[in-house]
Automatic annotation (TrEMBL):
This is FAD-binding oxidoreductase. It holds the Pfam family FAD_binding_4. Gene3D superfamilies: 3.30.465.10. Keywords: FAD, Flavoprotein. It comes from Actinoallomurus liliacearum. Signal peptide: none annotated. InterPro entries: FAD-bd_PCMH (IPR016166), FAD-bd_PCMH-like_sf (IPR036318), FAD-bd_PCMH_sub2 (IPR016169), FAD-linked_Oxase-like_C (IPR016164), Oxid_FAD_bind_N (IPR006094). Residues 1-159 form the FAD-binding PCMH-type domain. SUPFAM superfamilies: FAD-binding/transporter-associated domain-like (SSF56176), FAD-linked oxidases, C-terminal domain (SSF55103).
């Protein structure tokens, strides 16, 4: 990083490469920094439920090591196969974000290399963040535009001893919302409430805990929404929907019916290719759209929350980000961390 700064080179970080196509294509890439050789567990304080790892460590490898101690980093990578640094840089999280939170919530410390090659630490055992910034929150979801993530420390949870899934089919968008809200506001504490639709629309919930407690909670959930109880998830669980354009939508959980209705109302020939899937409990969904008409579909979805096009085919013109009220502040932060705008230039919102 210091050498790149000295030569004025643009730098793009990469982990396993599962999400390098997310965000806008960078305006330049003189140097691609692959972090996979940074693959160690630096420290696992099992008694404190804390782990510190290098950024290139595969999440699957970390999961296997922690499982030996009966612990877990409760993140479900989307898509599978990512690294610690990748899941932080893209801010992605899977179904269990409802109970455990996202990477931003579980992160307690971070080490980064700035654009000028200076190493900066925040959180964990460090008392004060660099320059007054909460580096963990800033770098989560920054797509490599602020610096290179090299280490991270996370809060862990015990591995649940039992799990059960409850899934049911909704007759329409309104019933899907009623089912998701009934689960969310019950005392059953689901670890995840996911939806997949339209045509048909399926609502599913995951319950985790002790062997004596999970079955009664799952059965109570089945009595609320119908369907069936199973030990395994539906086939679509924890998978991104397939489509030419992948959109992340964030809205109030109560917007679910409106979002499903928007997709069902797309012009003839498009609705079969449009699909929404994700957390009906947290209000974070991924929507797959055909490239033809995607810009109009994005405008429809933005009536109910934010909608960001994560991926799109080359040559397809889209308003990827939509309105960004905080863009002036984001530009000032970019100028502080990367004054020459050499880190993944143009990949993030507003051409940052």
């Amino acid at each position: 990083m210091r050498a790149a700064a000295g030569h004025g080179l643009t730098v793009v970080p990469r982990g396993a490469g599962t999400k390098t196509h997310w965000g806008a294509p960078p305006d330049g890439c003189d140097l691609l920094v692959d972090t996979r050789r940074l693959g160690r567990i630096v420290e696992h304080a099992a008694g404190d439920l804390v782990v510190k790892t290098e950024a290139g460590l595969a999440l699957d490898d970390l999961r296997a090591v922690l499982a030996g101690a009966g612990q877990q980093l409760a993140l479900d990578p989307l898509p599978p196969g990512g690294t610690v640094g990748g899941i932080l840089a893209t801010g992605s999280a899977g179904p269990r974000r409802l109970l455990y939170g996202s990477a931003r919530d579980l992160l307690i410390g971070i080490t980064v290399v700035r654009a000028d090659g200076v190493v900066a630490h925040a959180g964990g055992k460090v008392v004060k963040n660099v320059a007054g910034y909460d580096l963990g929150k800033l770098f989560t979801g920054s797509y490599g535009t602020l610096g290179l993530i090299v280490e991270a420390a996370f809060r862990l949870h015990p591995v649940p001893r039992a799990a059960a899934y409850v899934s049911a089919t909704a007759a329409d968008a309104a019933q899907a919302l009623d089912m998701a809200q009934a689960l969310l506001h019950s005392a059953l504490v689901p670890a995840a409430i996911e939806v997949d639709g339209p045509g048909p629309i399926t609502v599913a919930a995951l319950f985790e805990g002790v062997p004596d407690g999970v079955p009664p909670r799952a059965e109570a959930a089945r009595s609320l929404i119908g369907g069936r109880v199973g030990e395994g998830p539906p086939g679509w669980w924890g998978r991104l929907p397939d489509g030419e354009v992948l959109v992340e939508v964030r809205a109030l959980p109560t917007a679910l019916a409106d979002l499903l209705t928007e997709l069902e109302g797309l012009p003839t020939g498009l609705e079969g290719a449009a699909r929404i899937r994700g957390s009906a409990g947290r209000g974070v969904w991924h929507v797959a759209l055909p490239a033809d008409g995607a810009d109009d579909a994005l405008r429809r979805l933005r009536r109910h929350g934010t909608a960001v096009a994560l991926t799109a085919p080359a040559g397809v013109r889209l308003d990827r980000w939509g309105p960004i009220p905080a863009l002036p502040l984001m530009r000032r932060v970019k100028d502080q961390f990367d004054p020459e705008h050499r880190l993944a230039p143009g990949r993030f919102a507003g051409g940052i």
